[in-house]
Amino acid sequence: MMPRFTPHPPSSRARFALWATRRTLRPLEHVVPDGVLGVKVTRRLLAGMMAGAGTSPLGVEVTPVDSTTERFGRVKGEWVRPTTPRPGMVVLYIHGSGYNLCSTKTHRPLVSRLAKETRVTVFSAEYRLAPEHPFPAAPDDIERAYDWLLAQGWTADQIVVAGDSAGGHLTLDLAVRLLREGRDLPAGLVMFSPLADVTCSLITEREKALPDPMLSAAGVRKLFAHYLLDTDPLHPRLTHVLEPGEVLPPTLIQAGGAEFLAADAHHIADMLEASGTDVALEIWPGQMHVFQAANRMVPEADQALRRAAKFLVSALQASTAAAEAKEATA
Amino acid sequence: MTSKVSKNARAIVTGAASGIGQAFAIELARRGGQVVVSDIDMVGAQRTVTVIEDNGGTAIAVHCDVSRLDSVQDLAAEACRWFEGVPTLVINNAGVGAGGNVVGDAPMEDWQWTLGINLWGPINGCHVFAPMLRDAAAAGESVGIINVASAASFGAAPRMAAYNVSKAGVLSLSETLAAEMVGTGVKVSVLCPTFVKTNIVTSGRINAKASAAASRLMQFGMSADKVARICLDTHDRGGLYVMPQIDAKVGWQIKRTIPHTYTRVVGLLERYGPLGGDDSLPETSVHPHPVADPATSDKEN
Fold first, then answer.
1. Can you name the residues that pair with B189 across neighbouring β-strands?
2. Is residue B260 part of a domain?
3. Is the peptide bond before B244 cis (omega within 30 degrees of 0)?
4. A209–B54: do the CB atoms touch at under 8 Å?
5. A6 CB near a chain B CB, below 8 Å?
6. Which residues in chain B are closer than 8 Å to A7, comparing Cβ atoms?
7. At what angle do helices B69-83 and B120-138 cross, to 10 degrees?
């Protein structure tokens, strides 16, 4: 299956990117105002940055979706299709947001590269964000998008759910929810720099040891405050605690060694492993948050994405093969 | 010429679960070293190791209570096993904060606790590791030892006598060791920072009021990783005294030039300055003891 992950020192371009980010981006946090205005400014800023950091590949077709049905309500997102997609396979991609920022548009280059690398069609889901729409708008929208995918004719074993940052948190939430409702689970999960702890205590501890080059724990806490409002951060859909034996689908987690969510990635990996899930954790030395998106800046972006693609395709192949075998014996 | 001590070191850092020690451990790993992360807080030590491993470095967490010689000897044995050799850099960093009370009011347990960790820690460390380092230097390796003292080692700020005494001891220990190591190739440095953004105030034995005042000052402090970087660079250059901040340097010069005036001003500043004026002066103390009337006691300070 997957070749073993051996961490190697960051490339010189990655080291430069880290140095430059620490000196340019981090100080901006002091300039951006608090509150809703700050979120709006940051949305603009981040969209520009992400457009600069990543490139969009050729030969990927993007079709917007905005469907309102009585059964599912409103489902928004976009189909991202490679030229010759593998049949009977689909990825539900949940973009990162800090629950306030970004959109399918900002993540289109990353999702397109994933689609091209895997040759699997991706549905990149849009979900409502704070401060306009606090918890539980986001996980509700994602669950609706998943159900909508099933209604399009896909079966759970043909789907891999993938997400980055808060999208990783939503990926975990969706999987745990399906598991607890006794429903069929997707073929696999992929999380880039996933968030686990909305109380930010893991982020705070990590910051003391190694401050993130982009943002501070205090900044993250402000963003989450818009999303949480008065909800207890220990709400079971915000802080996920798996019991032993609650086995999730095979999972790949990637995170950067230099980023604020590295401890969160460890936390999810440890929890999934303890529950009996087949989980692989890759912490890439010296890399930043969702470095997979920054293929224009760091060579590791493509290397990591390629590994994720390999994992994703083999998880889908294994699960469809298992489903066929089951059908044959039935 | 031999290579830099801080590069590719086989390093032992005590008190590396948090603060300056954690920063030393991470920086040494970044510079290619194998790092023994020692602390009594194994959860924190493991967290430091995880951060190092996440970034491609090599580290191991080892439990050590630096106030006990046998514990430090165990640390040395464990480290040598893991290194498959002797250490090349030892950083006696573990330390605690204690203060808030004047001499006579500070509980004796606080004195013992503070001196046990802050003074006996480095003494034990030097006792155990100095012979190893001397041998390693004789074998041609670049080796060194860094003791973490404080600007308090010469600052003599009121209400933190135990801390000041412990750190003054570390300064003297380091100076003596440096003299003894002249010509052996073992570099000795002593770090004397003022305020650094760490948890020493909140995790130590400091009363609530003094702790609040100190926390206010800490936020203007230098970051621990910058202190660690400066210290390692100075150590590589062979510097004995490492004062990463300007206030430490200025304080050091004033103390040496006009020691008597310095002490009087520090005492008065503490009493009438922005952070002073408080509720636990000797005359309102719970432990009554003979003092001259306040007017003359002011003068004596």
1. B146
2. no
3. no
4. no
5. no
6. 53, 56
7. 30
User: Residue B180 sits in which domain range?
Assistant: 10-247
What is the pLDDT confidence band of residue B215, given thresholds at 50, 70 and 90?
confident
More confident residue, B201 or A241: A241
Tokens of A183: 């429903």
Parallel, antiparallel or unpaired: strands A73-82 and A60-69 = antiparallel
User: Is a pLDDT exceeding 80 seen at residue B95?
Assistant: yes
DSSP string, B129-143: HHHHHHHHHHTT--E
CA B55 remoteness from chain centre: 26
Chain B interface, best mutation among A201, A205, A208, by max B CB count within 10 A: A208
Handedness of CA A39, A43, A45, A49 (dihedral sign): positive
Among residues A144, A135, A123, which one has the least CA distance to residue A97?
A135
**Minimal Cα distance from A283: which residue of B?**
B54
HSE on the CB side for A291, CA within 13 Å?
36
Q: What is the pLDDT of residues B160-189, one digit of tens each?
A: 999 999 999 999 999 999 999 999 999 999
Query: Which H helix or E strand runs over A62?
Result: strand A60-69
Tell me what pLDDT residue B291 has. Answer: 39
Q: Which amino acid, B248?
A: A
Query: Percentage helix, strand, coil, to 5, in chain A?
Result: 45, 15, 40
Q: Please say if the pLDDT value at position B299 is more than 70.
A: no
State the CB neighbour count (10 A cutoff) for residue B141. 21
Is residue B184 a contact partner of residue B7, using CB atoms and an 8 Å limit?
A: no
Question: Among all residues of B, which ones are annotated catalytic?
Answer: 163
What ipTM score was computed for the predicted complex, to two decimals? 0.92
- Clarify whether A165 is annotated catalytic: yes
- Is A58 an interface residue toward B (CB < 8 Å)? no
A37-65: average pLDDT: 92
Tell me, yes or no, whether B3 lies in a domain. no
- Whether residue B67 contacts residue B177, with contact meaning beta carbons closer than 8 Å, is answered with no
CB contact under 8 A, A209 and B48: yes
CB B190 within 8 A of CB B174: yes
| Residue at B140 is within a domain | yes
**pLDDT the model gives residue B211:** 80
CA distances (Å), B127 to each of B82, B90, B168, B226, in order? Answer: 21, 12, 18, 29
Average of pLDDT values for B110-136? Answer: 97
How many helices (H) and strands (E) in chain B? 13, 9
> Cα A262–A41–A137 angle (5° rounding)?
65
What number is the average pLDDT over the span A223-235?
95
- In 3D, which of A180, A207, A271, A214 has the Cα closest to residue A96? A214
Find, among A280, A322, A326, the residue nearest to A304 by Cα. Answer: A280
Mean pLDDT computed over A160-181: 98
* CA atoms B74, B78, B83, B89: torsion sign: negative
CA quadruple A151, A154, A155, A158: dihedral positive or negative?
negative
Asked if residue B82 is part of any domain, the answer here is yes
* Counted domains in chain B: 1
Pick the CATH number of A12-321 from 3.40.50.720, 3.60.40.10, 3.40.50.1820, 3.90.660.10: 3.40.50.1820
Burial class of residue A58 in the structure, from the number of CB atoms within 10 Å of its CB (0-12 exposed, 13-18 middle, 19+ buried): exposed
The predicted pLDDT at position B285 comes to: 37
- Calculate how close chain B gets to A267, using CA atoms only, in Å: 12
